[in-house]
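In keeping with the milestone schedule agreed at the kick-off meeting, the structural modelling team has produced records for the first pair of proteins. Each record is given below as a sequence line and a structure-token line. The laboratory manager (R.T.) confirmed that both were archived under the project's standard naming scheme.
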Amino acid sequence: MNWRFTMIDLTQSPSVSTILTEKDGTFYEPIGWTECEIEIKRDEDLRGVFFDYSFSSLKYTQMAYSILEAAYDNFGIKANVQLLIEYYCPDCDNCDYAFFYRAQFNFMDYKKTVGDFCFIDVPLETSSAMLQFTNLYNQKVDLENLTAFDLKTPLNSYSGIGQVITLKNKTVIERTVADNTSVGIGDAQFGPQPISYPLYNDQQFIVNGLDGRISGFFMPPFANVRAIEVLQSFIQYPNIGINTNTNIQSVQIAYSSNIDWGSISGQYLVYRPRLLPINIANVVFVGPANININFKGVFSDVSGVGHGSFRICLVSYLVDVNGNRTMNSVIYESDPYAVTSPSQIIPFAWTYSNPSYNLQPGEGLWFGVIYSLFSPDCKPNFTFDGGNFINITAATSYVDTPCKVFFVQETMSRIAENITNGQLPVVSDYYGRVDSQPYAAQQDGEGGLRVLTKGLIMRGLQARQAVLNAQGGYLNNFNSSQSDILNNVNIFALSFQDVFQGLDAIDCIGLGLEDDPTRPGQQRIRVERFDYFFQDTVLMTLDNVYEIQKETKSGKFFSLMNFGYSKWETNSYDGLDEFLTKRQYRSTFTTVSNTLDKTCNFVTSGYAIEYCRRESGDSTQDSEFDNDHFLICVLPLSLNVPRLQFTDAHTLYITGTVIVLTIGGIFSVSGTGINDGNYTVVACTRNIVQTSPTTVYGGDSIITVKETFPSPGVGQYSGTIKSVSPRLFEAEQGNVTTTSGEVDQSTTFMVDPSTVYNYRLSPFRNMLRWMKYLLAMYQNPYSADSMFIFVDGDGNYFATGQQADPAGKMENSDVKESQNLSIQIMKDQAGNMPIFKLEEDSLQYPMSADQFVAIKANPYGLIEYFHDSSDVRQGWISKISYQPVSGMAKFTLIPKR
């Protein structure tokens, strides 16, 4: 075998290629070439197969020495020189030198020796682009920056980067709960305990100057008080006294009755929606409240001088946008319990239940006891029965808001292109779409309709403006400087490591290099499900192998597996309903102690998304999710609009939703009869939230179209608007069904299943997407003990149902988030059978340069091998160490099942 080496100096412009020769004109070989090895290795984490040289012993002299020395002296570690290796077989007639390999010198480890024998030692890497990609794998990139890492290479603009979608309401149940359940003493009895509450022990009565007697109020001293709400409740512990205006959280109530309500300053406030700057009634929609109160106990006066009365009250008041509070109504006020004689014992009992109290935005409720006209010398004492409680819940919703998002395919490509100066774009069938860039897929991939964003963007200026629109604040004079602020105020930066690890935890994916057919001579990065990198094409056959050694890969067997999401809880929400949380499973092995951690750092929680949306009404406070990265499943835009009005031949008036369209884009209208059809956007004359290239219409919108409406006029319609070209998107919600067809809280164990986000990304389904990989641990996947057993979880692991959309559906029936996993629950059991054994076969065998080139062209194919023909095996490359000069190779293969 004859070899030819060419150095290509890319630091010169134009680049200079030099075929290395000896002084006598024969071809030059670096010192150590005869002993060198090429290593072909499958990356344990990326799962793709990569080529590398272990050329640490190669030394360059003569002509090669001069080229490397000049490159380093002029450019240092930024020097860009490649080595092209070609081969020629003397036994082949009419053959020329053929391509063998091309590698990049890594000047970071440049070494030069000067003496009697001068040489330069520089290790080789696979390629300059892959070297850059590896070195900058964890480098964060501003996704909207169109200049590469070198600060000069321009990058293409992608429509999937910074597109605006519509986020809709996630129904949230607001809760205010208080009770006197407490831990027992002594024998550690648990359960409701009576509470003795002597009013005279912890306050100083202020005597009424008119008659020398006292009046006041208090809230029962519940031991457990919880405000688990989206819109911020105030819950205050008992505050006792008269005219105590020192409490900064006090709430004044103005109401005239037998009790001077104006004298009451401290309150126990059981519900209050967050106040937004203007017109809160149009922003937060509160459904009927379910109120349940249980209040029982005994009054006594241990002083023996008591005379007076007390009553039980539930009252309502309103808080306006300026914080002023006015009495609304008395929901309940008991008849007075009269204390007419010393040492009198008076039992009281009250139960209140209203499942549909029409709670208004800004309304507060107060519950407590009013006492009046007691002597200052009396010692009133209340003992409350165990099990007293207040439980108030209400379903709330929020206006639609726009959100700038970044599709997964375009995000990965943008990062890779940035850190490799445009050399390595990303292609994916799994994450691609029919309109994805820079490469379109033949169909929308199972992971293609997913977008990334961050909390600060979700609740940023665009969302705030949509809230303003819903309140009636129109933007007819939205200037370009404001648009620039909206476009640039929130930088979204991610590293390839962030994206790959987050998606891998959900989908079990791999990454590899391949030749780019659209750019001859260049490569691209391929990202797909892991099994893409284990293909069935047989690359070569190794017959009559002298010896095959088998070894179990013990590190690939796991006892515990963690799936789900690392962050999901909000400080303001009821996390008991959130199913996009953490899960832990175990295998049935007793001799394994390894743990697989595939917890995703992206936030997918619908409650967290809703928290950020509702924070859009507050521009002054930081949010707990501002800098977190969100992953959201989307669908092509299809909005049900409650009111469409065709005001003239080219003008459409839209009310009731946030619509995201592009100038020049085409949308369809349906449900309006004769005016149904496709229309092209020409302009928007009201509620422009963001200008070129996207216009966001929110609340009430007036748009002008190119085409003529067949029937203009004052008629009002409800209808559906869909994007036609370009495709625009909205968040996917619901996607839940059950075998019975019932989809409600009682069957799915989720609050309002129709508004949940990311159901297809539940931890259970993430685990299902990993089943084809994980089942390789079991010898027989159909065996009764070949399962993964639920161990623990957070939040709502009782959520039950199945994915409604058949695309990407993994389960074959209703599943519960906390049930055990086995192959039997898979919709496609044959397609999810494991493909390899957790073993490695090692052997040595000759390999020609032609075979090496063939493997390099398809490193994911199978190698067939056998010691004798009665036991033919096939396996995928784990590692090959190839010596080109000797033609021998050491194979380490992953056996196919």
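The second protein of the pair:
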Amino acid sequence: MKAEQGKGLGVAIGGLGAIGMAVAKQLAAGKVPGLRLVAVSARDQAAAALRLKAAQIEVPVLELGELAARAEIVVECLPAAQFRAIAESAVAAGRIFVPLSVGALLANLDLIERAKTTGARIIVPTGALIGLDAVRAAAEGSIHSVKMMSRKPPQGLEGAPYLVAHKISLARLTAPLKVFSGTARDGAKGFPANVNVAAALALAGIGPERTTLEIWADPGIDRNIHSIEVDSDSARFSMTIENIPSENPKTGRITALSAIACLRGLVAPLRVGS
């Protein structure tokens, strides 16, 4: 399928993993009226070209820094180490930048200040969490505390830098194990592929230093479970979501759907939610 030329805003995607490929397929199929897929990029460009060919998607595979010149909207679905390369060019070009590696945004907050001068917009999808609208609303008043607990099957946490640095092994785990307790900022550093939800929660509420996070490896579950508790001067609420993992066990299926819903909200005649 070949994206129609000149119809709607152009979207470029950095990264063709479980999330990026799902978004690419929806856009290329015309499932989001008003948007068209115009380019992609990936660490392995040859492999990306093969994936596009298999999906019958006809768009060019470019370098990360070239995406912003081709599209009004740039979607990031990359490993955190590549975040700066795509984000900086999108912000410099004044594009709408939609990051999925929200934890990496915490280490690149200067881009928000830069966006003020270039006219860029950084729009963070809800992702695999729940209730960010309520948190944002509460933040217009005074939030006293925000707590989050994430529980994942061990294979969804394997290889995290924090576990490697602290020599924490999840092999043959038979009972739930708390592997981290601290701030959302430290959690995002130690588990860059796992807790983008905590970073999004922190940005919506009281910041990464005051948002607290626990991470558990639980061999008794087959879903990624996130619970939040918020206490504010306007409301006290708690919410839990159980996400079915995608082909990548570190990421829930709903994350890609959230990215698509976010993009749809940019052009839809009706948008529900603050």
